[in-house]
């Protein structure tokens, strides 16, 4: 199986290094793209938006044999979902890592502090305590050392979805900060942010209790959770 690991904000493809060995040992081909604006030498970020990140993932999907599993961490979940919307017949499963499929017209996060055309990694006190669970001082230092600014428009561009066929794509949510019961309740109560979840034909939720960056705090366990989802695909 071809697996595309889509990094969240401030992270490049190498940020998955603790996760990929588990998938590779199982015989899967793993793709870890670094998205536009976060590649070495990228300087001007003002022209880069969410659609550029989606297009970069679609280039990979179109170049490799289907079926493909898309894995999106955090903001990368919205990129994965837009790619699944564009190529539903080619996607065997979408795995959301501490992320959710947000509906058409939503934005990833318009509350992050912007500096010009970019969003640098904020100070740690910007985040909620639940985000930082298990992210000790050494991991925080490592994260900040590899962090690259996110193009500002990626966080604020509206999600664009077109095809009802996306709801037939199987979805796994690896829930780190929030328990399965909370998500199920949100679906049942019709919470707007859970509207896409409520329309899925196949949804599984795997709990992996930790903070928002399990690729750092629990990389082996995250790899095993992704592997379990891939094998079901």
Automatic annotation (TrEMBL):
Keyword Hydrolase set for record: yes
Cite the PANTHER family for this sequence: AB HYDROLASE-1 DOMAIN-CONTAINING PROTEIN-RELATED (PTHR37017), ESTERASE_LIPASE_THIOESTERASE DOMAIN-CONTAINING PROTEIN (PTHR37017:SF11)
Q: Name one GO molecular function term.
A: hydrolase activity
Keywords associated with the record: Hydrolase
Report what the protein is called.
Answer: Alpha/beta hydrolase
Q: Where is the AB hydrolase-1 domain?
A: 3-221
